[in-house]
Design a protein that fits this description.
Length: 553
């Protein structure tokens, strides 16, 4: 918006013809009306007086003028600003349409309060429209024919479609009032915030886990925890769309970092979407301008589902000052207090120590671990969708090994249509993994017992071996972002350990080997598991030879 463009008075705008109005709008928002949106606006022949008469009426611009939602919303806001300058805003009963700004001055609100009220009204309308779009999209998916796998409990066709690794679609983003987080791929020209989604095989598992939690008397929350870049946010947003389409009350917080900046408006926007089908409840929500009022509101509600993504953003991080640490703690406790009124789904990347410690205590929180990257079928589809991508000096096996098939890493390795595993992004990942390993060696230099436990765990991860102690019991000794254990073998009484991607494996392998590494038959025993993956086979053989050389001096 060009703030230097003067806003006209109501009387001035009343005299404008359609060309004068269009010229002013284009000066104020130069990129708002372009292409077909410009042609549709011209075809409506809106004069200055007509523009004023529709102030605050988003449906007029969207339905009567056939403009996109984002364009309609912006024009609605602009018209409301003009009316607000002299009439202190638009009354909810649209009285301005009757007297064109001749309301009693004594009844006027302060300008800032009126503008806030108008924005909230438009935000509530936006929530209703976005929820309707979601409902229509999910209904379309439910109508598509699909076969239900034998091991899957009967569920809606939309859930099966969203679990199909060869299925691609676009869904309306289930949040209004804020920009869609960058990790979601959105068409920059799409005013209605549709994001791209590709089916994931464990989506049906996520849905089943949630249904189990919601009907449990002992469990109140489900946490999706695992590899950074796995696609947890996309899984959650897709689940929110499915639930919202079935008129569930879903309070969705897609980005805890943005939530931290303005917690009250952010929660209020989420609540407006949750109760989009109840305009009277939306009126109550618009009045919630403090944390205390929000607390009281949720205490009176039932059957609410809270979906909170990027929960690790509220954990203390290195470099946080005291005020930031305190604010994060306060917001965590506040959310926990609100969630008591319903069920909750969280998502967090690894290295969240609060979550790591929960299984060791009595907790009402269930954890769904999602480690690694794409499955075989998902990876096949990824390549099929990118047939134009040039491999350059790499093979597909090398790309998959290096990235661990992690969706985020896979997207980052495509630079200008060509695979580039030397991109700056991967250098930073390598340095992160290396720095953590270096820190462990420095911190526990005088504690050989702790170092030995660390090296034992890391060797198990590097060679796909079993380890007797899970990383959950030694949280400070493991970089959970890139190394983990998942399967427990009850007969052996041990956990199977892994690394997430080849780049992090390579970053720490030499240091682990050089520090009290032992050469044993276990390294060779792990080879048969990787005979179909030449990259891993080569790594195991290389490390085994280096270990033997070190052992022999």
């Amino acid at each position: 918006m060009d703030s230097s463009v003067r806003n006209p008075t109501i009387e001035e705008m009343k005299e404008w013809d359609e060309d004068e109005l269009l010229k002013w709008i284009q000066q104020k928002r130069s990129k708002l009306l372009e292409g077909d949106q410009l042609e549709k606006f011209k075809a409506a022949h809106i004069s200055g007086e007509a523009f004023l008469m529709q102030a605050g009426d988003e449906e007029f611009f969207r339905k009567k003028c056939n403009l996109a939602f984002g364009v309609s919303w912006t024009l609605t806001k602009i018209s409301a600003e003009i009316v607000g300058i002299e009439t202190a805003g638009i009354k909810r009963n649209r009285q301005y349409r009757e007297d064109a700004g001749m309301s009693d001055p004594a009844s006027k609100k302060p300008r800032w309060e009126s503008e806030t009220d108008t924005e909230l009204q438009m935000l509530a309308a936006s929530a209703r429209q976005q929820r309707e779009r979601i409902r229509l999209e999910i209904e379309k998916l439910d109508q598509l024919p699909v076969s239900c796998p034998k091991d899957v409990v009967s569920c809606p066709n939309s859930v099966l479609q969203l679990s199909n690794p060869t299925f691609d679609t676009k869904l309306p983003f289930p949040f209004v009032g804020y920009a869609v987080p960058e990790r979601f791929q959105v068409n920059s020209e799409d005013y209605e915030s549709y994001w791209y989604y590709t089916g994931r095989e464990n989506f049906v598992e996520l849905r089943e886990e949630f249904e189990r939690i919601r009907h449990s008397c002992q469990r109140s929350a489900l946490t999706i925890y695992g590899t950074r870049g796995y696609g947890k946010s996309h899984l959650l947003a897709a689940l929110v769309c499915c639930l919202a389409a079935r008129e569930e009350k879903i309070v969705y917080i897609p980005d805890c970092r943005e939530f931290m900046k303005q917690p009250v408006p952010y929660i209020r926007a989420a609540a407006l979407f949750a109760w989009a089908d109840d305009e009277s409840k939306q009126q109550r929500i618009m009045a919630l301008d403090t944390q205390e009022k929000i607390d009281r509101f949720f205490q009176g509600q039932s059957d609410v589902v809270f979906v909170i993504d990027q929960l690790n953003a509220l954990e203390e991080e290195e470099g946080d000052d005291k005020p930031t640490i305190n604010k994060k703690a306060e917001l965590r406790y506040w959310l926990q207090g609100i969630e008591v009124t319903g069920k909750a789904i969280h998502a967090s990347s690894a290295n969240n120590y609060s979550i790591l410690n929960k299984p060791l205590k009595q907790s009402s929180n269930e954890i769904m671990y999602v480690y690694g990257g794409l499955t075989e079928k998902e990876m096949e589809h990824w390549w099929a969708q990118r047939q134009e991508v040039q491999l350059g000096d790499y093979t597909k096996d090398e790309v998959e090994d290096f990235t661990g098939r992690i969706p985020w890493f896979l997207e980052k390795c495509v630079v200008n249509g060509t695979i580039d595993l030397a991109a700056k992004f991967f250098t930073e990942i390598y340095e992160q993994a290396w720095a953590f390993e270096q820190e462990i060696q420095t911190r526990y230099y005088k504690e050989p017992g702790e170092l030995q436990r660390h090296y034992q765990y890391m060797r198990a991860c590097l060679f796909g071996r079993f380890i007797w102690v899970s990383s959950k019991f030694i949280p400070n000794l493991v970089d959970h972002r890139y190394f983990y254990d998942d399967k427990y073998d009850s007969e052996r009484g041990e956990f199977e350990a892994h690394y997430t991607c080849g780049i992090c494996r390579n970053a720490v392998a030499s240091m682990v080997l050089e520090n009290k590494a032992r050469f044993d038959k276990g390294i060779w025993q792990s080879l048969p598991e990787y005979t179909t993956n030449p990259c891993v086979t080569g790594f195991v053989m290389e490390q085994a030879i280096l270990a033997w050389i070190l052992l022999q001096g």
